[in-house]
Amino acid sequence: MDSLPNALSPSLHLDHPTDEENNAIWKLTSSAWKDALPEDAYLRESAYLMTVPLATDGGMTQWVLVERTAPPNKRFLLSSCETFFKRSWVSSPDGNVTEVVTHGVASVHTDSMYRGRGYASRLMKELARVLPTWQIDSTEQAQCIASVLYSDIGKQFYTRLGWRAFPSSHIEFAPGRAAEVGALSPAAPAQPLLTEDLEQLCKQDEALARKALATPTVENRKTRFMIVPDHTHMLWHHAKEEYTCQMIFQNKPHIKGAIIGDTGNRIWVVWTHRFYEPPRPTGTASMNTLYILRLVIENQDALNAGSGEQYDLQVDYLQAVIVSAQAEAAVWGLHSVKLWGPSIHVQQLIKRTGIPHHQEEREEDAISSLRWYGEGGAHEDDVEWIGNEKYGWC
């Protein structure tokens, strides 16, 4: 296509697609991202997800690389993506916590007929210049500290463009009925979390997480960074899972997680169901996964101690919520349960539960990547990404 502009041309710029262009983009992306949905349902889902928390009221912005003078609906859609406005925190080593803004970059796509010409790189370079001031009110103190993305094409492409790859690991558990999983049966079963439970728990999680960030660090002199695990993030994931499950099963998941313990010593998880492909018969391998969006352990002192009566209680409690997740995965025919970004302390606690699992360092897909706009460097040696769990993905 000789009529296509050069990727370095000054005639190219970022714009926002029209509704008609959105539909064209969604049709182009359907083969890669529709998961278990038929194409028409995926198109409806894409429109629907623009109306739910995290995306609505300007939370999600769509971007397209186009020629500046070309008329809408008749221009080449050379490359596209979307960004999400995310509340975040940064904490200095002395425990000074500041609320800031992070933009999550998602759904970067270039039509196959336009690939190999540098358009995706140009899109990301333009975006990198725009995002530091995008949706930032100059009358307020909040600043954009970073943008994040989760690369499914390895580490090199986005690192070259300034989004540096951070450690990306998860722990995986097999599904199974409660009586079948774990080396031991839980001392007490966890209680299910329902939709109406989540808002208050997320507020409590926010308070706990901010308190932890406000604790000064002695040996670790890194800047700590965290996307706030707020209710809107959970709602976005649940809106996506409910839409998919309603289409496939004519039924929606009602259990959103599991919790156990008394206030101050509780452990809970919030999860989501992901169907990458149509359900398969029991015992048949698939990519379908129950993701633990967020793991909360209230008593961090006991967790950090690594031993003692309260720590032993945490072992029992963590075992109970994991067993609940495994049982939920079995009910919905999901192939695995995955927990992203477990800390060293959580890894040790999981080992103590006796539940079979394996840990994986991701090298090609869902690579956590960070572009830093704050002070200091953007490397893992300079910034510690706290709570890098599935809730932050979009």
TrEMBL record:
Residues 187-394 form the LYC1 C-terminal domain. InterPro entries: Acyl_CoA_acyltransferase, GNAT_LYC1-like, LAT. It comes from the Eukaryota. It holds the Pfam family GNAT_LYC1-like. This is LYC1 C-terminal domain-containing protein.
